[in-house]
Amino acid sequence: MSYQPEVTIVGGGMITHDQILPSLFQMQRNGVIGEITVTALRPQILWELRRAEIWARAFPGQHFRAVPEAAETGEADPELYKRVIAGMKPRQIVAVAVPDQLHYEVVMCALRHDQHVLVVKPLVLEHSQAVEIEREAKARGLVVGIEYHKRFDDRSLMARRRYQAGLFGEFMLGTACLLEKWYYRHSNFQNWCTTENSDAFTYVGCHYVDLVHFITGLLPVRVSVYGIIDQYPNGNEGFLWTDARVIWSNGACLNVQNALGFPDEAPGTNTQSLTMYCRGNNVGAWLEHSDQYRGLRYCYTRKGHEPGATIFAEPSPDYFQYVDVGGPGLQPVGYGYRSIEFIVKKAIEVEMAEPARRQEVLEAIDKAGVMATPANSAYNELVVEAGRMSVLNGGREAVIEYGERPGVRLR
Ligand SMILES: NC(=O)c1ccc[n+]([C@@H]2O[C@H](COP(=O)([O-])OP(=O)(O)OC[C@H]3O[C@@H](n4cnc5c(N)ncnc54)[C@H](O)[C@@H]3O)[C@@H](O)[C@H]2O)c1
Q1: With a 6 A CB cut-off, is 200 part of the ligand 1 pocket?
Q2: How many whole angstroms separate alpha carbon 212 and alpha carbon 221?
Q3: With a threshold of 0.85, does the pTM exceed it?
Q4: From ligand 1's centre to the CA of 329, what distance in Å?
Q5: Cβ(84) to ligand 1 under 6 A?
Q6: Which residue in 65, 250, 294, 335 has its CB near the most CB atoms, within 10 A?
Q7: Are residues 163 and 308 in the same domain?
Q8: What is the pLDDT of residues 123-171, one digit of tens each?
């Protein structure tokens, strides 16, 4: 049996342009997937996406189907994605790339129409929603892969293997940061990443919380987030600077700083890193990842056109790059590509299994813990819930309770 799933991307914003669509184009070129559809709120978004210069250079002759038809003007239709998903053949793939607070309804809509799901992080903003998603997917034998792409950075996989082998002992104290550039404030973020929906920790801090669990297997048990409210250019307000403290099941402590505030003129597309101090038997251990400066320093003759471009640059060869290996077009490389490919291939693996064996394959995916799923990473939703509770209460600590009925409460 051959199976080349069609893929519908819901959302045509930054992450679709930078990572999801080019990764899927590459997989389409390799014959792994079939038609790609992109649906978004407004025709203009798809107009801009279609006009992006990179497609002609990287994927000559390849196209996506736009619904609604890409156009310079047009009304927003927040319900359209439902009709697009309803029109798909069953057991294809839906990639969810809409603002955080909309993930739940789009993921559930896809599952109810028997579609496998790839969803950008964070899966949802409430733990009970993650549980519902897990139940629905399991009942239908479908994959839900949460796209925590840092897991597919080889350095994360190296650290995980070495930690599991006992080379780092036990995690005690750590610091992580991820500060996006200032210009993000001018993007569509100002319309949704506002105090009532999200904050810098929820938006990007979750990557490092997830990574510390991925490496150590520890669970987060207490969270406090101090947030500073700042204004977007359109006057909306967001917690654009956050400092979080996450306490883990063994008493370890991780400090995470996040912001939409790294200078546009600084090299690199952002700044990000992870440091972990650990203890062994009468000896200390230490791990440090510079996730922004990866050893490359370029000084160009002129500035590029893209937002945040600088003359002096520290490009990351590891997340997502286009390389020329003789064509056709350019080839996407990096953990951003590998992460999308991994999730799509897991959906295909489940689909190719005998129906009677599908649950077994899904359980093996959950158990391996490489791809984040609702079953193996719902601690992320508890952290998001606790973080939101804390930041909205001036940084008071929120406690995560596991067991029969997991939940969060202020301490
Ligand atoms: N590092 C990462 O993992 C990473 C990076 C960027 C974004 N993200 C996540 O990706 C998601 C989207 O972020 P983005 O940067 O692309 O945001 P964006 O604001 O650039 O794009 C959001 C898109 O969602 C679409 N949308 C909104 N409501 C819709 C609806 N009802 N129907 C159809 N489409 C709708 C909009 O049209 C827009 O195209 C967020 O959840 C964000 O947290 C993850």
Answers
A1: no
A2: 13
A3: yes
A4: 27
A5: no
A6: 335
A7: yes
A8: 999 999 999 999 999 999 999 999 999 999 999 999 999 999 999 999 9
Question: Is 408 inside a domain boundary?
Answer: no
- In this structure, is residue 322 part of a structural domain? no
Span from the CA of 105 to the centroid of ligand 1 (angstroms): 14
Strands (E), 263-397: 270-279, 284-290, 298-299, 312-313, 321-323, 331-333
Which DSSP category does 19 fall into? I
The answer on 141 and 174 residing in a single domain is: no
54 by Cβ neighbours in 10 Å (0-12 / 13-18 / 19+) ranks as middle
Same domain, 303 and 334: no
Ligand 1 neighbour 41 (Cβ under 6 A) = yes
Spatial CA neighbour of 291 closest among 323, 264, 313, 269:
269
Give the distance between the most distant pair of CA atoms in the chain.
66
Q: What are phi and psi of 297, to 5 degrees?
A: -130, 120
CB 55 within 8 A of CB 26: no
Expressed in angstroms and rounded, the spacing between residue 98 Cα and the centre of ligand 1 is: 3
Atom of ligand 1 nearest to the CA of 78: 31
From the CB of 121, is ligand 1 less than 6 Å away? yes
At which residue do the structure tokens 């997991």 appear?
406
What are the tens digits of pLDDT across the range 311-342? 999 999 999 999 999 999 999 999 999 999 99
The Cβ-side half-sphere exposure at 297, using a 13 Å CA radius, reads 2
CA dist 377 and 402 (Å) reads 13
Alpha-carbon distance of 381 to 119, in angstroms, equals 14
User: What's the CA-to-centroid distance between 97 and ligand 1, angstroms?
Assistant: 5
**For atom 33 of ligand 1, which residue has the closest CA?**
40
Where does residue 282 rank: exposed (0-12), middle (13-18), buried (19+ CB within 10 A)? exposed
User: Tell me, what DSSP letter sits at residue 296?
Assistant: -
- In the block, residue with structure tokens 């520290």: 314
User: Is residue 10 lining ligand 1, measured as CB closer than 6 Å?
Assistant: yes
Domain of 285 in residue numbering reads as 154-316+381-391
- Nearest-CA residue for ligand 1 atom 17 is 13
How far is the C-alpha of 50 from the C-alpha of 52, rounded, in Å?
6
Q: Judge whether 406 lies within some domain.
A: no
Q: Is residue 53 part of a domain?
A: yes
Domain count, the chain: 2
Ordered DSSP codes for 366-400: HHH-SSB-TTT-THHHHHHHHHHHHHTTTT--EEE
